[in-house]
Design goal:
The chain is mainly α and 137 residues long. The chain has one domain. Helix content is 71%, strand content 0%. It has 7 helices and no strands. α1 crosses α4 and α3 runs antiparallel to α4. The protein starts with 10 loop residues before the first helix and ends in a 7-residue tail after the last helix.
């Protein structure tokens, strides 16, 4: 297989591509972060967080050995993976995670976030690529 010569990218091209990706992220993720934070606060005011966290507690507490409220953050991770950390900070009321979670819990949270159900964007891409139906050969 023939390999082409390696060439440095032009700074203008790198900056343009970086800007397009950042703008795309801001357009997609930022509204989800804002809406997700409002939904969490609204659910907290209505007293809905505790029942949902209690339902998820067999998974979050007994199986993953995480704080009860972490299950709520994992639910929002289906929308966008970055949302789990933002919602976790909102739920814990701090961004000083070592104060709220042990290092082992942070490692477990990170691994679960990376490996559980893919986000909606990934699911949509897979559906577009492969379709919903299982194809028989």
């Amino acid at each position: 297989m023939e390999m082409h010569d390696y060439r440095w990218s032009h700074l203008k091209t790198v900056l343009k591509q970086s800007w397009f990706r950042l703008a795309d992220f801001i357009k997609i993720a930022f509204p989800l972060i804002i809406v997700g934070s409002f939904v969490v606060k609204f659910a907290e005011v209505l007293g809905l967080l505790e029942p949902v966290a209690t339902v998820l507690s067999p998974i979050t507490i007994m199986w993953l050995v995480l704080a009860t409220i972490v299950g709520i953050a994992l639910i929002f991770g289906v929308l966008r993976k970055e949302l789990t950390l933002v919602i976790l900070a909102t739920l814990l009321g701090t961004t000083d995670f070592p104060q709220a979670l042990t290092p082992a819990q942070m490692v477990v949270f990170t691994l679960v976030t990376m490996l559980y159900i893919p986000c909606i964007a990934t699911i949509a891409t897979l559906v577009r690529k492969f379709g919903w139906k299982k194809r028989s050969s």
